[in-house]
Design goal:
This protein is an all-alpha fold. 26% of the residues are buried.
Length: 136
């Protein structure tokens, strides 16, 4: 019989950078090690629902691209996600798939508001709600 899966194991190797500066590309247009790690970490946390290129304005629709306003608090959100996962790991929280992902995202969103007095990006809440209602 398999032991219950834990947050600590599910998110091992994610949010490992000491700090993420919020960048998407370097000056040459290539992803940096930090941005690649952040992209992979947010991808895991959101169950693959966060489209990293799109949240950084890399979309093909010209009007949407021209209207794009970047989210300025990726560094702070990264910090909050990292802290929340670390604390759930320390508490030996169980991992139950997307419902747990949604809970972690909600905790990170609450910490972001409490610690930095800013809101999560617009895409955060719909992703979190979607994860709460999936059977994946």
């Amino acid at each position: 019989m398999k032991d219950k899966e834990m947050v600590k194991e599910q998110f091992a190797g994610t949010f490992t950078a000491e700090r993420y500066d919020g960048s998407y590309h370097d000056e040459r247009g290539f992803g940096t090690a930090a941005s690649d790690e952040a992209a992979a970490s947010f991808f895991e946390l959101t169950g693959g629902l966060l489209q990293w290129s799109q949240v950084h304005g890399n979309v093909k629709d010209v009007v949407r691209r021209a209207m794009f306003e970047p989210y300025p608090y990726w560094s702070e959100l990264y910090d909050c996600c990292k802290r929340v996962i670390k604390e759930h790991a320390a508490l030996n929280s169980g991992f139950s798939g997307d419902v747990t992902r949604a809970r972690l995202m909600g905790d990170a969103m609450a910490l972001l508001k409490a610690k930095y007095k800013v809101n999560a990006p617009k895409c955060w809440l719909p992703i979190m709600k979607s994860l709460r209602h999936t059977d994946r």
